[in-house]
Amino acid sequence: MLPRFCAAVAGLLITGAVVACGEENPTGPSVAPIPTGVGTTSPSSPTGQPDLDAPEQVAENIDVPWGLAFLPDGAALVAERDTGRILRLVPGRAPEQVYRVPGVAARGEGGLLGLAVPPDYAESRYVYAYFTADTDNRIVRFRLDGQPEVLVADIAKAGNHNGGRIAFGPDGMLYAGTGDAGQSRRSQDPASPNGKILRLTPEGRPAPGNPDPGSPVYSLGHRNVQGLAWDRAGRLFAAEFGQDRFDEINLIEPGRNYGWPAVEGAGGTDRGYTDPLITWTTAEASPSGIAITADTLYAAALRGRRLWTVPLEDGRLGTPRAELRDHYGRLRTVAVAPDGALWLTTSDTDGRGNVDPGEDRVLRFPAR
């Protein structure tokens, strides 16, 4: 029997025109110039600031790159959403398939989604993945020469709102962002894993210190969490798709309720909900992956087709700035490599972009 979800019952506002449902709407034509430095690797400083004027192309013709995680040697693993393949990427070399996750059912926004590499990878050799199967979304772990072990199952699936981002926090625990799978009531149901951020041990059990002992639920009231990142002080930030009006960046604290479906954007504090730190209109953002480095939060925007940079100080976010607008089309995932370089994936082959030759791409911006 597969392991099952443990059912314990236990700002800055950026305004704009009201538009429909963020990621679900396609955008106009992409503009995808070939970046400079193709096939090269410039030096990068782990303490530097990513140079967004110095792009390097790591790989091209990737089929809906989604999850991105780094191995201790600096190589990257990237998940192809629709094929279930995991590719090993090293700048200057051709992508190498190192695994194919069995049982991936890629329909709509579902498929092979997030990847995570644990802090003890050198000893355990495990890779973690979040993917859509025939009946549900699930989290598995595996070694690249072995079969997957199901850690969490029964996360409801749908054509959209599957969540899918996973990452290990500074506490060594595995965090997972889920979506409401099209049923908003799930987000407020503490017995449902949907519309939540889950906090798990590396073995997939509810992590010690969770708000409700025996439950993996860390926070609730989310619509569709697709970005997770920590600052230097260990504070967790999350990116979330809105519906018709506002996308969000939230500071995640244990046990907090972030309001969906009662609230979209800010305005829920008088009802006991936690407001986002930043909102964008859905046309400006549809934020997927986020990353934090050099006191800056980076948010990859799908429908917005830009990279948002936000200064970060003591848990507070400053004024966002749009970078790379319309340079590379839809942007899905952003991550910081061990050498401080910022890696970015495009997402025009996901059915909602206009595909230009060479897409989708993985780009690298060295830190200076």
Quick recap:
It comes from Nocardia amamiensis. The protein is 1% helix and 36% strand.
Write a structural description.
There is one protein chain. By secondary structure, this protein is mainly beta. 1% of the residues lie in helices and 36% in strands. It is built from one helix and 26 strands. The chain has a five-stranded mixed β-sheet with strand order 1-18-17-16-15, with no helix packed on it. Strands 19, 20, 21, 22 and 23 form a five-stranded antiparallel β-sheet that branches.
Protein topology:
Blueprint: E1 12-13, E2 56-59, E3 65-70, E4 76-80, E5 85-89, E6 96-100, E7 112-116, H1 121-124, E8 126-132, E9 137-143, E10 149-155, E11 166-168, E12 174-177, E13 196-200, E14 217-220, E15 225-230, E16 236-240, E17 246-252, E18 278-281, E19 287-293, E20 296-301, E21 306-313, E22 316-317, E23 321-323, E24 331-336, E25 342-346, E26 362-365
Parallel strand pairs: 1-18
Antiparallel strand pairs: 2-26, 3-4, 4-5, 5-6, 7-8, 8-9, 9-10, 11-12, 12-13, 13-14, 15-16, 16-17, 17-18, 19-20, 20-21, 21-22, 21-23, 24-25, 25-26
Helical fraction equals: under 10%
Shape by Cα distribution: globular
Query: Going across the major beta sheet, what is the strand order?
Result: 1-18-17-16-15
Q: Report the major sheet.
A: 5 strands, mixed
Count of β-strands: 26
Distance between the termini: 51 Å
- Content of β-strand: 35-45%
Query: Which residues sit in consecutive blocks of at least 5 with pLDDT less than 50?
Result: 6-22
Number of helices: 1
Q: Output the radius of gyration.
A: 19 Å
The helix/strand series, from N terminus to C terminus, equals EEEEEEEHEEEEEEEEEEEEEEEEEEE
Structural class: mainly beta
The overall average pLDDT, rounded, is: 92
InterPro entries: 6-blade_b-propeller_TolB-like, Glc/Sorbosone_DH, Quinoprot_gluc/sorb_DH_b-prop
Keywords: Signal
Organism: Nocardia amamiensis
Signal peptide: 1-20
